[in-house]
Structures are given as structure tokens and as C-alpha cells.
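> example.struct
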């Protein structure tokens, strides 16, 4: 639902504190820091062709993927802004091999983030985004560690994303509904534009890279055949997770990045992509699964653990789970 009242994200968070005890003063400051980081990244994204941030950085991230210069910029922006105020104990980034502890270690929060999702698409003006997830530390009073980051998604207290597209939006939840804010560049602030977002009942889109057809299990192929026959449904696949998820949240649908024979554990990051979007999906009346179980029930064992992801309208996710089969060529014990 669109709300045209001029309520800034800062005003919204202060008002929400009255009804949501999760939103402590420190957590509100962290969300405002992420809001500021989004503005900094947005300025660099919209001037991409005119800056020195084009091209590869000449290094690989912890998952062995080529890092873009803009990835490095976005990662540094989020890290440095959060570090400036030090309200977290530890953070983890898709671009960092190890966890990053707060120098002062005076916070009780864990911040996990993908600084620039879909960055390989930036050169062709495809929407990209920032994804974040926030937890309480597992062991209060102790130095932040890897253990604090390896919590199941059900322990999240807030998550969100920013999409840098034809307009810039920040969407977040703190367990009390999903709210969307649109950036007004003339005023330099995010304003509440989508109040208590939910997946529409009517399905519009399915988003999957069908080039993986020969590497999918037969159940997923059957699912694609089934969803193609549903009235009013069309295929829409951008290739930037944030962009595909955001469209389906607004229009109804499902995004699937399955396990395949060449990626038997899936390709998306559990901590930085699947968990935060799963929290939003469930708060918006949707569902998120790896095909076998609820995403937010998975207990992570690695900082950069990967997983399959089926996310969107509940009925579509449930149908995909019903049809899923073992992958061809793999032994399932």
C-alpha cells in the first residue's frame, strides 16, 4: 500500500519504538547508519560511468568470485559508517573472508550484509542493491566472534535491503511488518512510501534462470511446467536477487535459485542474502525455503555458507517443495 505522507525513515523509526520493543536506541542508530550508507552508495551508483569505480578490483571475494571496484567501495562505506559509531559487537560481509569486530566492542548487535548485490550488472544499468541482517549477540558481555554470526535466521531482529534502480528504495522489517521508503534526491532523505507491505494474493511472476534446466532436478522442471500454465503468470528474471525479489514482493510471485548438479549446495549466501530476505518475506505474508525446510531454521556452520532459495508467495513455495526431487547424478543417503 502506498502512503504519500511525508514521514522520514528517522521519524518512522522513532514512532515505531513506541510499539516495538525490539527497536532500542542502539538498533535505531544502526538502521540510520545503514540509511546513510545507502545514500553514499547510491551517489556512486548513479555516477558510475563518470567515476573511477568501473571494472574489476583485481581480487576475488571469499566465495571465489571476481570483485568489482564498486563492491569494494560499497563494502568500505558500510563498514566505515558502522564503525564510526561502534554500536555493534561484530559484523560479517560477503566481501570479507573473516568477521570484523568492533574496535571498542561496546555493542550487543551483529550486522551481516551484502554491500552490493548484483554488482556484475552495474555496467549495463540493471538494478543492484544492498542487503542487511541484524542479530543480538549470542553471548552478551563477551568479545564478538564468529559464533555470533552463525545463528539461524529465526534469531534475526531486523533485516532489509536497498534497491538502486529507477528510484531508490529502502525496505526493512524489525518483526512488526514490512515498510518501504523511497529516496527523494531533491530533499536528500528516505520517505515512507509503502506501509506494511505484503505479497499480493494474485501471482504475476516467476523468476528463475531456465538456462539451468539440464542441471535441475525433475521436480523443479515439473514445477516450471506447472507454473507456466497458471493464468496471468509470466517469466521475469533480472539476475539481481534484490531486483527480482522486490518486483515479486510488489506484484506477487516466486524467485527460485535451486541446487543444481554443478552447485549442489545452491549458490546464494545463507547469511547475507537468503536469511534477511526470508525474514522480510515471512513478515510480508510469504515464505522462504531451500526446497526441503524453512530457510530461517537452517543452523549455519560457515560464514559464507551457500543454500538454495525458493522465496515468494506461500502457495508457490509450498508447491515447489511438494514437487522437489533428488538431483540427478548425486547420491542422497
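> example.seq
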Amino acid at each position: 500500500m502506498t502512503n504519500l505522507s511525508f514521514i522520514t525513515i528517522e521519524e518512522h523509526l522513532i514512532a515505531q519504538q513506541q510499539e516495538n520493543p525490539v527497536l532500542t536506541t542502539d538498533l535505531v542508530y544502526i538502521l540510520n547508519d545503514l540509511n546513510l550508507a545507502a545514500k553514499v552508495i547510491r551517489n556512486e551508483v548513479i555516477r558510475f560511468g563518470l567515476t573511477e569505480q568501473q571494472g574489476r578490483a583485481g581480487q576475488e571475494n571469499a566465495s571465489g568470485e571476481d570483485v568489482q571496484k564498486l563492491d569494494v567501495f560499497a563494502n568500505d562505506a558500510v563498514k566505515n559508517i558502522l564503525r564510526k559509531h561502534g554500536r555493534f559487537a561484530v559484523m560479517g560481509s560477503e566481501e570479507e573472508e573473516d568477521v570484523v569486530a568492533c574496535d571498542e566492542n561496546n555493542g550487543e548487535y551483529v550486522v551481516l550484509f551484502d554491500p552490493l548485490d548484483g554488482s556484475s550488472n552495474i555496467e549495463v544499468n540493471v538494478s543492484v542493491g544492498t542487503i542487511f541482517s541484524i542479530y543480538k549477540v549470542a553471548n552478551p558481555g563477551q568479545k564478538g566472534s564468529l559464533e555470533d554470526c552463525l545463528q539461524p535466521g529465526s534469531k534475526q531482529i531486523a533485516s532489509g535491503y536497498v534497491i538502486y534502480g529507477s528510484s531508490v528504495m529502502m525496505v526493512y522489517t524489525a518483526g512488526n511488518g514490512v515498510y518501504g521508503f523511497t529516496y527523494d534526491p531533491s530533499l536528500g532523505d528516505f520517505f515512507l512510501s509503502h506501509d506494511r507491505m505484503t505479497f499480493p494474493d494474485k501471482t504475476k511472476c516467476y523468476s528463475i534462470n531456465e538456462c539451468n534446466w539440464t542441471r535441475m532436478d525433475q521436480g523443479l522442471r515439473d514445477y516450471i511446467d506447472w507454473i507456466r500454465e497458471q493464468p496471468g503468470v509470466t517469466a521475469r528474471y533480472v539476475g539481481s536477487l534484490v531486483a527480482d525479489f522486490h518486483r515479486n514482493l510488489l506484484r506477487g510471485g516466486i524467485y527460485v535459485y535451486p541446487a543444481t548438479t554443478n552447485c549442489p549446495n545452491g549458490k546464494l549466501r545463507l547469511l547475507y542474502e537468503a536469511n534477511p530476505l526470508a525474514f522480510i518475506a515471512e513478515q510480508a505474508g510469504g515464505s522462504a525455503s531451500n526446497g526441503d525446510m524453512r530457510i530461517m531454521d537452517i543452523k549455519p556452520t560457515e560464514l559464507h555458507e551457500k543454500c538454495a532459495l525458493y522465496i515468494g508467495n506461500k502457495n508457490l513455495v509450498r508447491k515447489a517443495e511438494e514437487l522437489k526431487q533428488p538431483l540427478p547424478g548425486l547420491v542422497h543417503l
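> remarks
The helical segments are 9-16, 25-46, 69-85, 146-149, 218-228, 241-251, 270-283, 314-323.
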